[in-house]
Amino acid sequence: MRFSLSRLALCVSLLHQGSAAHVAVSADKDAVIENRGLVGGLVGGVLGTVLGLGDVLKQLDQTRDPRAILDILNGVRPRATPTSLPEVQETLQGIYGSATPTNLYKNIALQLGSGLGPLIDDNRDLIIAVLGYGEGEDSVNNPNNPTNVSRTVYPTAAAGDAPYSLPEAQLRAAIRIPAAFTFGAKPPVLLVPGTWSYGGSVYGPNLRKLLTDSPHADPVWLNVPGAMAGDAQVNSEYIAYAINYLSAICSNSSNSSSDEVKVSVVSFSQGGLDTQWAFTFWPSTRAVVSNFLPVSPDFHGTVLVNVLCLSADSDVGLGPCDPAAIQQEYTSHYIATLRAAGGDSAYVPTTTLYSGLLDEIVQPQHGTGASAYLLDARGVGVVNVEAQVACPPASPGAGFYGHAGMLYHPLTYALVVDALSNGGPADLGRIDIEEVCSHYAAPGLGLEDVVATAALIPMAAGVLLSSLDKRLVEPPTMPYAK
Length: 482
Known about the structure:
Layout: E1 3-4, H1 5-16, H2 29-51, H3 54-61, H4 66-74, E2 80-81, H5 85-95, H6 104-113, H7 126-131, H8 168-173, E3 175-176, E4 188-192, H9 199-203, H10 207-211, E5 218-222, H11 232-250, E6 263-268, H12 270-281, E7 289-295, H13 305-308, H14 323-327, H15 333-340, E8 350-354, E9 382-386, H16 387-390, H17 410-422, H18 433-436, H19 447-454, H20 456-466
Parallel strand pairs: 1-2, 4-5, 4-6, 6-7, 7-8, 8-9
Antiparallel strand pairs: 3-5
């Protein structure tokens, strides 16, 4: 039986009354996080009972087999209907409230049951939704013709660039250029997705929708084959090539008023980490990027990989997982190589945006120790924005936002527009913080957009659980980075 999501939100609200976890960040943020862990566990149990998912949660507690988990999740149907943005936020807060989740797939089951996943009706399950990835706006085979390329971008754009391991046609086909693209009349913006996702689905219901008609942005997005689950070093090749290719096809075109058009890059999750790798080992990209705006990035990796990577034969530690996931371990060679090469500091004007309350995928994600936090050793200009610190206490924008939630956060959009409009990193001083943070989502986004964005987490889980390239050891470091 379905019912309004307000019933679930009421459960959450009652448990949070009087709790520091329900209000904005206090002076003792660690205490808030600890409190949230307790309250989140209680709320998760209540939601499981209300939704009638007790048996499902028990089954998920008893298996580490990815295929079995996917089968269980495929059987979950929405038992509630979201009716407002506050209800959505309250419910997500209850589901993902624990600071240290031990079974992310139980949380995903609750999200699916709450009507906040891709299970939009009783005839569509998670596996069917995942099979649609890589097609349409998520296509990895886009017929881009290299017309009006003003300079050489392959096999190398400049001396010092790393070599590509992929043919140019494959790199170019991953770039999705919409029919309305102006080829330099408006500043091009490259949208880079995260792990287990494609750019079309990631940005369609949020930033791409908002930026499409902006005079300061002309969105183009990447659909990396394999949904960014393969070797992160190879994923970075797609990003490096796309940056130089977009700049080249826009520069000197009849629509461009500049001899050299620069590209802005907006990224999500792993997309930020791999863009930083591209800046590090393809120096030519730095000269043609005007702004880098990573959302929920994991520049230092995450300590939660072991929550994601499971195996029927492994009960302890990290099970076999997709290459990019292992490379995003906090102690991976990929992360260590990037930091040793100077990738812990920005190469271009950068505004990094993240949630300290509470990213369920990337941890740590608070203060200067946040995985999203970048240094500015080169003096290019860096602004690190933790949403709950920047927004006024008790405002909606200072509340709970998860990993994908930052894509619709009102402050994210405001800062992206500020950076694209003014050049250089965004400036909080140019924004009406109280007005911006008084909204649950960026103006222009509705309930359907927020639910579609929240659904990116179950969709990513479906890709992870169904992918076949599982390893125990990360791919070897490319020779150019050794």
